[in-house]
Amino acid sequence: MPNHLSALGIIHTAISIIALLVAYYALYRSGKIDPTSGSGKSYIILTILTCVTGFPIMKTGHLTPGHYVAIIILILLPIGIYANRFFGKAGKYVQVVAMSTTLFLSMVPAIVETLTRLPISHPIAAGPDDPILKNSLTVLFVLYLFGVIYQVVKIKKRGKKAPPQVNPSGV
Fold first, then answer.
1. CA-to-CA distance for 101 and 107, rounded, in angstroms?
2. What are the tens digits of pLDDT across the range 82-103?
3. How far is Cα 83 from Cα 102, in angstroms, rounded to an integer?
4. Dist. CA 33–CA 19, nearest whole Å
5. What distance in Å separates the CA atoms of residue 156 and residue 44, rounded to the nearest whole number?
6. What is the model's pTM?
7. What are the residues whose beta carbons fall under 8 Å from the beta carbon of 118, sequence distance 6 or more?
8. Per-residue CA distances from 91 to 42, 54, 94, 97, 137 (Å)
9. What percent of the chain has pLDDT over 70?
10. What pLDDT digit, counting tens, does each position of 157-169 carry?
């Protein structure tokens, strides 16, 4: 079976793989995707490019679930970027959830496309209803939940360890 990716599909796939690698690097380095860090900024730019290059790819001639996922990601990115500015004390939690959700949503088509296309001669999953695909997405969702919970707990613990603020006027 030949590769059915267009030139745009190949570019889109390459950008998306790099975005995912950058996201995992950010998670490894700081335990979260921080929009103010270099890796966080790179992830955001690459993820936007992934979404934008995905819009013209239409096998069926109309929007697919993948296009709607891209729209949701494009809505979540600014929420994650500006969470600290608009959500006050809850901002750091909103940011972690929003940025982690963009990664989770980016992984869904990555898993689906990988398992239904590779290896080229005999893909691992026969289609969207294949049990291995459903199980893989379930594992991904569980990892996402554990990851978000871990990040939230880590933020809460950091907040409790903050030193008490001393009033400089002595009152």
1. 10
2. 999 999 999 999 999 999 999 9
3. 14
4. 12
5. 25
6. 0.87
7. 124
8. 21, 30, 5, 10, 28
9. 92
10. 987 775 555 665 6
Neighbour tally for 60: CB within 10 Å: 6
In this structure, how many other beta carbons lie within 10 angstroms of the beta carbon of residue 145?
12
Q: Which amino acid is located at 95 in the chain?
A: Q
Q: How many residues does the chain have?
A: 171
User: Which pair of tokens denotes residue 17?
Assistant: 């793989």
Residue 98 and residue 80 in contact, taking contact as beta carbons nearer than 8 Å: yes
Locate the domains of the chain by residue range: 7-159
SS3 of the chain: CCCCCCHHHHHHHHHHHHHHHHHHHHHHHHCCCCCCCHHHHHHHHHHHHHHHHHCCCCCCCCCCHHHHHHHHHHHHHHHHHHHHHHCHHHHHHHHHHHHHHHHHHHHHHHHHHHHHHCCCCCCCCCCCCCHHHHHHHHHHHHHHHHHHHHHHHHHHHHHHCCCCCCCCCCC
Long-range contacts, stretch 134-138, CB < 8 angstroms, 24+ apart: 136/111, 137/108, 137/111, 137/112
